[in-house]
Design goal:
Layout (H helix, E strand, L loop, with lengths): L12 E7 L3 H15 L4 E6 L6 H8 L4 E4 L5 H12 L4 E5 L3 E3 L5 H9 L3 E10 L2 E5 L7 E3 L5 E3 L2 E2 L2 E2 L10 E2 L7 E5 H6 L12 H11 L3 E12 L10 H18 L7 H18 L3 H29 L13 H7 L15
Parallel strand pairs: 1-2, 1-4, 2-3, 6-14
Antiparallel strand pairs: 4-13, 5-14, 6-7, 6-13, 8-9, 10-11, 12-14
Length: 349
């Protein structure tokens, strides 16, 4: 379908599903997404030039789903940026193709954003589709980072994933909303420049959310809305490519968004990440160790441009709201605080 024909939607919610060679996932999850969403939103497939039969499958089986076909694989960041510029909805939901949604999953997050002008984005509770009692790695019940930039979630710190006992069922302000199921106001998304396309994929939503906070917007977790995520549908976390992207992008995000006087934190990050390299080597995961080194090399090569952007574009607009003012590594590995509920909440303000 010609994307230009979608400029004036009948509904004010667009659910965008980015796809690249994901026919198997679409066959498993799309029927549920469409059934639970179509009455109140337009469902849109954004196809990153798949060479499988994804587009034909959707065209033949879901004629009401709109399709934006891109000319190459732009990745998560640029793929969504291009698609979002072609549509005109008040609210957009960026949803992974390996997600099962629940009844009324759209209502609470959209209602919250509609009634709170100072909030730009939010996320639902994200649970594990293979173990329904547990949160899911990619976002759990809302994301945070520590002072060194390491991400963690309300319900998941590093690889320790908690059982959902409704212990985090209150709405709270969070630092980042997961790209697995990201609700955001389109106007604000465009206003702050969308995703950083140099990230390609991974941690671009954390960078986006930090820029929202830098521009005086807030982000919330809405646990009354629940989705179930398979995870690793596009790039499994055990792949060295994901290790490279996570480390490189996280370093770029830190350099971009930290105030100048806190940039020396990255020196300490170098030391901590050296321990991560040694840990991978000790486990004979040589490609992962090498991927961290490549991530650093790629980051260092971008510093001149990042510095120029920081000086001329960002000015003094840097905030540390909702960043955990401690080391999550210290808390987790030394102090054995492996659950979000054990952390010092005063350090999250």
């Amino acid at each position: 379908m010609d994307a230009q024909k979608m400029e004036v939607p009948k509904k004010n919610i667009g659910v965008l599903i980015l796809n690249w060679n994901g026919e198997k996932l679409l066959k498993r999850f799309l029927d549920n997404i469409f059934y639970e969403s179509n009455e109140f939103s337009d469902v849109i497939l954004v196809d990153n030039a798949s060479n499988d039969d994804s587009v034909d499958y959707v065209t033949n089986n879901f004629p009401d789903i709109k399709i934006i076909q891109l000319d190459k694989n732009y990745g998560y960041a640029a793929g969504y940026n291009i698609a979002i510029k072609k549509i005109n909805y008040e609210f957009i939901v960026l949803l992974n193709s390996d997600v099962k949604v629940t009844s009324n999953w759209l209502f609470k997050p959209i209602s919250f954003l509609k009634n709170n002008n100072n909030y730009a984005a939010c996320q639902p509770k994200i649970k594990d589709i293979n173990d329904n009692e547990k949160f899911e790695y990619s976002g759990a019940n809302g994301g945070f980072i520590d002072i060194f930039g390491y991400p963690f979630c309300r319900g998941r710190i590093f690889d320790n994933i908690e059982i959902d006992k409704k212990q985090y069922d209150n709405n709270i302000d969070i630092f980042w909303a997961s790209g697995t199921a990201l609700f955001i106001k389109r106007k604000i998304f465009i206003e702050i420049g969308g995703f950083d396309e140099s990230f390609f994929a991974h941690q671009e939503e954390i960078d986006l959310c930090w820029r929202l906070i830098n521009n005086n917007y807030k982000i919330s977790s809405i646990p009354e809305s629940v989705v179930y995520h398979l995870g690793g549908g596009t790039l499994n976390k055990s792949k060295p490519r994901k290790t490279f992207l996570n480390f490189r992008n996280n370093l770029k995000m830190m350099f971009k968004n930290l105030p100048f006087h806190l940039l020396p934190i990255l020196i300490l990050r170098n030391i901590i990440d050296l321990i991560a390299i040694l840990n991978y080597l000790a486990k004979f995961k040589f490609m992962h160790a090498f991927s961290i080194i490549l991530g650093y090399i790629s980051f260092y090569m971008t510093i001149p441009k990042l510095l120029m952007d920081k000086i001329f574009l960002k000015k003094n607009n840097f905030k540390l709201d909702r960043i955990y003012k401690r080391s999550i590594i210290l808390d987790y590995f030394i102090l054995n605080k492996k659950e979000f509920g054990l952390l010092d909440k005063k350090k999250l303000n």
